[in-house]
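Appendix B. One record, verbatim.
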Amino acid sequence: RVSRRNRLLGGGHAVQIHLNVVADAVIRHVTAAESAKKKTNDIPKIAAPKIDGKLDDSEWKGAIAGELVIAGSGAVPAERTRYWIGGDDKNLYIAFRCNESNIKGIKTTFTHEDNRDSALYSDDCVEIFIDPFNDGISGKYQFIINSKGVFFDGYCGNKNFQSKLQRSCSVTANSWNVEIAIPYEDIGISPKGAETFMLNLT
């Protein structure tokens, strides 16, 4: 299950972050060293960005920001992928900017909304895994989005899970971008505080 983007990067690229859901989070920015140590971070509380795939809303300036690295080595790949994470009382917000030197070469087998829950991992895509109880036992939610905005959502491998995920993508001359809103209620998390969950981005 290796997409063209992963092959270009010479292997899987990922970051794992442990996040606290708090009522009034202090904004912190994640460094590469903190990510490597799986440091727990508070989710910054941000105003809801417009989910249009453009990443130009000022709200993202208050989000956690970081960069995907090559799994194992921790090296920054040639085709860099930036991410942003924030939240409000209802949603977890995640954005990606995927640099692409060959923008016409983006692999998009699945292009229509009817392709929801198809084998999107074979396309150039981003993936989000969420372990809501941070115990490695209870199961994980999985979301995959390609550059056309077609998405997969599943729970413990069961694609019959249907979330209310919102997403939008845009393609520029040298990158493709994704903005995502995942309702907390879809992943069994209350935004009242005291919850810690694991988020894995690839």
